[in-house]
Design goal:
Elements (H helix, E strand, L loop, with lengths): L11 E3 L2 E3 L1 E4 L13 E4 L2 H11 L10 H21 L8 H13 L3 E6 L2 H9 L8 E3 L9 H15 L4 E6 L1 H6 L3 H5 L5 E5 L3 H7 L3 E5 L2 H12 L6 E5 L21
Parallel strand pairs: 3-4, 5-6, 5-7, 7-8, 8-10, 9-10
Antiparallel strand pairs: 1-2
Helix pairs in contact: 2-3, 3-4, 3-9
Organism: Haemonchus placei (Barber's pole worm)
Keywords: Lyase, Magnesium, Metal-binding
GO molecular function: 2-hydroxyacyl-CoA lyase activity; metal ion binding; thiamine pyrophosphate binding
C-alpha cells in the first residue's frame, strides 16, 4: 500500500489549499490515497537533486521548533528501544533477541533476508544495512512466504560469486510457516535460517540440517557461532520470545493495526 496520511498532513501549503508533491518511477502510483497535486515521474535521487539546485544554499534551520521536536522524539525512541533491548528476561522480547544478531552482523560477511510482520518491521531498525545489496525483505507490500525463496537464490549466488558470504534468514513464525517446506529444497544448498516459535529446529534436523532451540541471549550467540562454523547445509535457530512481546508504541494506530 502507498503511505497513509493523517488528515492534518501538509506537504506543501499554498493559501488554504493542501498540495501534495509525489515523486515516483511508476505513474500508476500517483493519486492512490489522495490526489497528487504535483506528480513528478522519475528517480527520486535525480529528481531531488534537480529540486535542490533550484534552492541554491537554502537550508531548513536546525534550531527550529520542528527540528528540535523531531530530534527529541528520535532520542526518546532510541531510549525506549535501548531499554527493551537491555531486558534479557526469559522469554525474550523482540529487541533483546535482535541485539546479539545485530552484533554478529557487524563482524560477519552476511547477506540478510528478513521476513515477517513485527519481526521484519523491527528488524529494519535493529539490523541496519551497512553495505548496499546486502539485505532482502518482503518490501512495501509485506508479502509473506518469500523468505525461503530469497534465501535459496541468495545462497546460490553467494556460492558462485562470493563464497565467503553466508546467508542469514530472520523470520517470524507466520513467515516461516507460509513456505516452511521449502526447507526441503534449501537442505540441498548452503543457507542459514532463523525462525521463532514451535519446534522448527526439529524440522530442519529431520531434513538433515542442524537445529538450535534457544531462549536466552547467550544461547543465541552460541547458536549463531556454531551455525556459521558449518560449511554446508541449512541450520534453523529457533528463538523463543515472549508471546506478549510487542513493538514499541506507535504514534499513529494504523502503523500497527491488524489487517485481519
Amino acid at each position: 500500500l502507498a503511505p497513509r496520511f493523517n488528515s492534518n498532513v501538509k506537504v506543501i501549503q499554498k493559501r488554504d489549499q493542501c498540495l501534495f508533491l509525489e515523486v515516483d518511477i511508476v505513474p500508476e502510483e500517483f493519486h492512490q490515497n489522495v490526489p497528487t497535486t504535483v506528480p513528478l515521474l522519475g528517480d527520486i535521487g535525480e529528481t531531488l537533486y534537480s529540486m535542490l539546485t533550484e534552492l541554491d544554499d537554502w537550508k531548513y534551520s536546525e534550531n527550529s521548533k520542528w527540528m528540535m521536536d523531531l530530534l527529541a522524539n528520535a532520542q526518546k525512541n532510541r531510549d525506549t528501544v535501548e531499554r527493551m533491548a537491555a531486558d534479557h528476561s526469559v522469554p525474550l522480547n523482540y529487541y533483546a533477541a535482535y541485539t546479539p544478531i545485530r552484533k554478529f552482523l557487524e563482524q560477519s560477511d552476511v547477506l540478510v533476508v528478513n521476513e515477517g510482520a513485527n519481526t521484519m518491521d523491527i528488524g529494519r531498525t535493529m539490523m541496519p544495512s551497512v553495505l548496499p545489496r546486502s539485505r532482502l525483505d518482503a518490501g512495501t507490500f509485506g508479502t509473506m512466504g518469500v523468505g525461503h525463496g530469497y534465501s535459496l537464490a541468495a545462497a546460490l549466488y553467494c556460492r558462485d560469486h562470493s563464497p565467503k558470504t553466508k546467508v542469514l534468514v530472520v523470520q517470524g513464525d507466520s513467515a516461516f510457516g507460509f513456505s516452511a517446506m521449502e526447507l526441503e529444497t534449501i537442505a540441498r544448498y548452503p543457507v542459514l535460517s532463523l525462525s521463532a516459535e514451535c519446534r522448527y529446529d526439529e524440522l530442519c534436523k529431520a531434513l538433515g540440517g542442524d537445529g538450535y532451540f534457544v531462549r536466552s541471549v547467550p544461547e543465541i550467540e552460541q547458536a549463531l557461532a556454531e551455525a556459521f562454523r558449518k560449511t554446508d547445509g541449512p541450520s534453523v535457530i529457533n528463538v523463543i520470545i515472549s508471546t506478549d512481546s510487542e513493538r514499541k508504541a506507535q504514534l499513529h494506530p494504523w502503523l500497527a493495526r491488524s489487517k485481519v
